[in-house]
């Protein structure tokens, strides 16, 4: 009897490439601006009108004819934002104007209020002293200076964050085609698992992975679907996996991918679809498994994540996040990477590259990121993920990396 895994061991890079090659873009859907934050635009968007649509004052002050120069002038009217003046500013006259108001006909510049004075006379119209010489166009936003009519304001593939949503609103575009958020279902497997709110019986532990993964899915822009806990029987597992494939674009299972008798996930995925890899040269997370299944609704990606909480979350970031981002339309779906210097020496693994959890912070004196280890890296110790915003990609080799050495850091949280 053999105890060797039948799966060949892929490198992390190869496994990621295989994963991304299987992730497909779904059809875009039109959504109102209130529901697009974080989504990727599926088409170029052009402005219908110029912005601003009228020459507008950028200051509170007086609309003038620049050539008039400093002097005392009659104020022939007032114009505030939101209305057009029903008078013209002839040479030798001025008009009070507020920020954002359309420049009255005849005026060609604005003198800010600080450079003027309303004179205390009984003159009608009242007299205003202009103290500053301005040039044509001063403190006026010409038509189309921000955005020209027909100009592409946003391109397909751009992420819609607050500024982009503001641009769409200003251009009068109230719904846009975006890629939908992928639905990601999470199933915990294991006879030993109980709900977090229940007291574990003898030999039992609480299910931490499901709450953690559901939260992680939401945080990276997916729509989480909770499939609960399945015991380690073929029937129970099969029923839940089928349900997951029906309901979600991506199915995550946790546990049941090691080499024990009750590690039923790999054979089940072989049956339900195609397993693309079942072992990856990495620490933690070696047994991570990736399959695809074709169902009525289309192609589904399935990740059999390892049961140990840390392995589960590390493999989620390394493989699931890029796949999810690709399916959400990201042109570059991989984790962002920076270089950091080690704050302390770290032991290396001679057989597998390690993804060491660390907290990166900016060191102003050295002008670089410094990576502080989160401590003991055993894969059951979820405390090693706490406050981690990066996975340090430690090379596979004997020995130790010295403090101060540079290392690639994959970002999993905010810096
Ligand atoms: P397995 O891959 O199923 O053999 O699980 C590996 C280890 O992870 C075992 O110690 C399991 O008890 C533990 N484990 C599996 N699933 C979970 C879970 N959802 N929450 C916490 N620990 C888990
Ligand atoms: Mg198990």
Summarize the structure in words.
The protein has 415 residues and is α+β, with helices and mostly antiparallel strands. The protein has four domains: 9-26 and 180-327, 3-Layer(aba) Sandwich (Molybdenum Cofactor Biosythetic Enzyme, Chain A); 29-50 and 145-178, Molybdopterin biosynthesis moea protein, domain 2; 56-141, Beta Complex (Molybdopterin biosynthesis moeA protein, domain 3), CATH 2.170.190; 337-411, Beta-clip. It has six helices and 27 strands. The protein has helices at 12-22, 162-170, 209-219, 234-247, 265-272, 309-327; strands spanning 29-32, 45-46, 56-57, 61-64, 71-79, 94-97, 109-112, 116-118, 127-130, 140-141, 152-154, 175-178, 183-189, 193-194, 205-206, 223-230, 250-254, 274-277, 289-295, 298-305, 337-342, 346-347, 354-363, 368-373, 390-394, 400-401, 406-411. Strands 7-4-6-5-9-8 form a six-stranded mixed beta sheet, with no helix packed on it. A six-stranded mixed beta sheet has the order 16-13-17-20-19-18, sandwiched between helices. A five-stranded mixed beta barrel has the order 21-24-23-25-27. β23 (354-363) and β24 (368-373) form a beta hairpin. The longest helix is centred in the C-terminal third of the chain and has 19 residues, at 309-327. The mean pLDDT is 97. The chain binds adenosine monophosphate and magnesium ion. The site of magnesium ion has 5 residues, from loops.
Question: How are the SSEs placed, and which strands pair?
Answer:
Blueprint: H1 12-22, E1 29-32, E2 45-46, E3 56-57, E4 61-64, E5 71-79, E6 94-97, E7 109-112, E8 116-118, E9 127-130, E10 140-141, E11 152-154, H2 162-170, E12 175-178, E13 183-189, E14 193-194, E15 205-206, H3 209-219, E16 223-230, H4 234-247, E17 250-254, H5 265-272, E18 274-277, E19 289-295, E20 298-305, H6 309-327, E21 337-342, E22 346-347, E23 354-363, E24 368-373, E25 390-394, E26 400-401, E27 406-411
Parallel strand pairs: 5-6, 13-16, 13-17, 14-15, 17-20, 21-24
Antiparallel strand pairs: 1-12, 2-11, 3-10, 4-6, 4-7, 5-9, 8-9, 18-19, 19-20, 21-27, 22-26, 23-24, 23-25, 25-27
Helix pairs in contact: 1-6, 3-6
Bound molecules: adenosine monophosphate and magnesium ion.
